[in-house]
Amino acid sequence: MLSVFDPRHTVAPPGYSRWLIPTAALAVHVCIGQVYATSVYKNSLIAHFDTSQTAIGAIFSIAIVMLGSSAAVGGRWVERNGPRRAMFVSACFWATGFLVGALGIATKQLWLLYLGYGVIGGIGLGIGYISPVSTLIKWFPDRPGLATGLAIMGFGGGALVAGPLARQLLSLYDAGYNPANPAAVASGGALVGLFVTFGIGYFVIMMFGPFNVRVPPPDWRPAGFDPARVAARPLVTRASVSASNAVRTRSFWLLWIVLFCNVTAGIGILEQASPMIQDFFRDNGSTAVSVSAAAGFVGVLSLFNMAGRFVWSTTSDLIGRKPIYLVYLGVGMVLYALLAVAGHAATALFVLIAALIISFYGGGFATMPAYLRDLFGTFQVGAIHGRLLTAWSAAGVAGPLIVNRILDTQGKPGTLTASAYRPALFTMVGVLAIGFVANLLVRAVPDRFHEPDQGSTSPVAKASVTEPVALGPQSTPPVPDHVGDQTGRLWLSWLLVAVLLGYGIVQTLSTAAKLFTS
Q1: What is the mean predicted confidence (pLDDT) over 387-406?
Q2: How confident is residue 80, by pLDDT bands cut at 50, 70 and 90?
Q3: Please, are residues 396 and 61 in contact by the beta-carbon 8 Å criterion?
Q4: How far apart (Å, rounded) are the C-alpha atoms in residues 92 and 84?
């Protein structure tokens, strides 16, 4: 039965709809995006294990570090084995992480939670995050920004789904838990039930990924696509660069700095979102922003984080990848400075500036795979992307550390005002300036790093060259010469995605409304 995940079954038959591929990516990314919603049950875990915030917060940090590490180490494996097997392996690790974590909660063994959700689940995060990237770019050589934006939008949307769903499940498993109270604490049994439910439920949903994903057959191109028009754009290569050669280029490390700086600045606001808006409007010890309104602000940021991944990445198809990063970093510097000097003037102004900053943060994630494709070609772009994601792991530590260390020097939590945040915000202006300069220095990859005899005619290398699962006679898929009507399958697949994201958006909008009604 497991032979269905063999690479030779992954090549698409003629007539296969490429619009099924984003649904496969979204099914995986919406599930693993749950990692951004761990704060929902953080207080419950602290109470259950009777430990510190730092000890519980380490679970998230381990998962993010493992995401970057497994993406970097497993990138070549994903390229060799194809997206179907990679998505299946990701689902197995992600689900197992929840189940092992549930065992740790049930037995009050915190190390099992570190091992389960942190290490095992983190491996599932990394493999799942990069699993569709290379395939999406091959199916959408005409619109790679749109394709990767759709998929990585799902990662941002995963928190919108998981946050309210976790609160509702905890209230179902624990009658004494009030989901409307941010300080509510659920019982250990409810936490076990939550983790088991997530483990099983996410595994089922993620199986839509292997079900729908395929790689394009050799020499496939979308109707009406002219490779010459793409090749004429700045920094778009006709050649192919391997992952091992990519890390030897200056452009790779410049992009590493670009991603690190963009994520460091954005994650600093995300991590402090709720207390930050309350502190900005604090006067004489009291704040004009209630706890429920602050939760609404977090909801607004979540929506802009998700929307920015699609909108800005799609825009990069029109104006180019380097210019869009000049917007992320250059306009971002202006917005951070405005937030520091004028953010306290009005709540609406504060929310608008912060929301735009976070949309650039999300857009930076979604645009990077297309940027890598432009510079290095489609050959092993998934593996290259995986290695670049180590910048995310580093920024996940650096961003909160910078902001928290500076705030610690300004006073105690609950007493801070807008002025206390200015040193941190201006520091982030400096961080973005470094990324801005790095992006300006990005150049085309020198010919000596190109793979031999690849790229003389097309900016998109042939599938027979770039996709290992399409090599050799054994890779011929045992499928009909063509596929039948796919309308029903398309509707079902997109309906699943729409229901999941729609639930999260509706729930988040109801929370965000409190910001304007409180």
Answers
A1: 85
A2: confident
A3: yes
A4: 13
Beta-bridge mates of residue 283: 286
The predicted structure's pLDDT at residue 472: 41
Residue 277 Cα to chain centre, angstroms: 24
Tell me which H or E stretch contains 287. strand 286-287
Instruction: Return d(Cα 139, Cα 168) in angstroms, integer.
Output: 38
For residues 150-174, one letter each, b for 16 or more C-beta atoms within 10 angstroms of the residue's C-beta and e for the rest, the string is: bbbbbbbbbbbbbbbbbbebbbebb
pLDDT at 142: 86
- Return all residues near 138 (Cβ < 8 A) that are at least 6 apart: 215, 216, 378, 460, 463, 466, 467
**Mean of the pLDDT values across residues 173-197?**
89
From CA 93, how far away is CA 485, in angstroms rounded? 34
User: What pLDDT does 13 receive?
Assistant: 85
Torsion sign across C-alpha atoms 338, 340, 345, 350: positive
**Residue environment code for 3-26, b if the CB has 16+ CB neighbours within 10 A, otherwise e:** eebbbbbbbbeeebbbbbbbbbbb
**What's the angle, vertex CA 434, arms to CA 238 and CA 315, rounded to 5?**
50
**Whether residue 312 has pLDDT greater than 50:** yes
15: left (phi over 0), alpha (psi -120 to 50) or beta: left
Over residues 136-146, mean pLDDT: 89
Q: Is 87 helix (H, G, I), strand (E, B) or coil?
A: helix
Mean pLDDT score, 424-428 = 92
How far, in Å, CA of 353 to CA of 332, rounded?
9
The number of residues making up the chain comes to 518
pLDDT of residue 278: 83
Q: Is the sign of the CA dihedral 396, 250, 363, 94 positive or negative? A: negative
201 sits in which H/E element: helix 188-206
What gap in Å lies between CA 109 and CA 309, rounded to an integer?
37
Average pLDDT over residues 385-408: 85
> Which run of H or E residues covers position 283?
strand 282-283
Q: Which two tokens stand for residue 89?
A: 């392996």
CA distance 119 to 213: 26
Whole-angstrom distance, CA of residue 462 vs CA of residue 464: 5
Note the pLDDT tens digit of each residue in 315-369: 999 999 999 999 999 999 999 999 999 988 888 899 999 999 999 999 999 999 9
Q: How far apart are CA 25 and CA 129, in angstroms?
A: 9
* pLDDT higher than 80, residue 5: no
